[in-house]
Amino acid sequence: MGKEILVAGGAGYVGSHTVMELIRAGHTPIVVDNLSTGHKKSVLDAIFYKCDLGDVAGLKKIFSRHNIDAVIHFGANCYVGESVVNPHKYFKNNVGNTLGLLEAMLDSDIKKIILSSTAATYGNPLKNPIDENHPQAPCNPYGLSKLFMEQIIDTYEKAYGIKHIYLRYFNAAGADPETRIGEDHYPETHIIPLLLQIALGIKKQFTIFGTDYDTNDGTCIRDYIHVMDLANAHVKAMNYLNEVKHSDVFNLGSSVGYSVKEIIERVEKITGKKIPTETSERREGDPSVLISSSDKVKKILGWQSQYSLDEIIESAWKWHKKYPKGFEDGK
Ligand code: UDP
Active-site residue 258, yes or no? Predict the structure, then answer.
């Protein structure tokens, strides 16, 4: 039996695109997802198990059926705003369930993990662009939960020899260029899919969270990265871990920042629709500017983003037009 890769949370947005990319690169992903936010329909051509990452007995059974070589871990809730009002959910699902996954890995003697981490672990940056050595001081429970996940896995390296790569993403967006899968969250809170839903007439108005930030136009600046670029980085990271066999951490972004107002303008241009907006207070937990330094990942993994912001929005727009109701499974 060839070696397989367990993809935890592989029915989610970044996970499902990575599964596609793993298959294209000749790997055999085995998807495990509890479908709490993921979509079964987004898993194309991979073996799928519905299982919670906290269900250690269930995971052990899956590990015993396969020849798993490494784990890629995407399983997490990812809404900054929700994490502020419901931190328990974030610590229970993101941190607690990671312990379940690690326990099953230890039991099956699996010693490699690629973790989906986030720029939110840096908190309010002291400088931009942010490199991997920037201090980690999350300003919301989502970022804190991801930092805990990293720190837990750090200790498992010392104690049990589990090697890791942490991939700290900036703002994931866009869809499969062949329009098979895309971004479908419920409720949707991310800027690009929200704007596209407004362009489609599904939602009425976009609320700009804060116009008094210390930026050119007063709105937050983010670094948007195509989901296919992220997917490709996971394959590269896994190959790297197999080769060099030592742990590392990489930021994944485009190193270019766009303000909320600039994103709205681009969406209006690409869709040809006017986006009605209103402004409100800042959203709690939002840093003003987050831009990635790509120097390290470029140098070591030979990775850099390939897709422009327009290509991100265009691919997402195509998917949203084709599937205005998303995967239509009510989530
Ligand atoms: N944003 C906004 N209105 C919305 C959703 C998002 O103004 O309804 C802003 C948000 O404040 C942030 C940027 O858009 O500056 C990206 O937010 P998103 O939720 O897409 O990603 P995050 O940065 O939280 O991961």
Answer: no
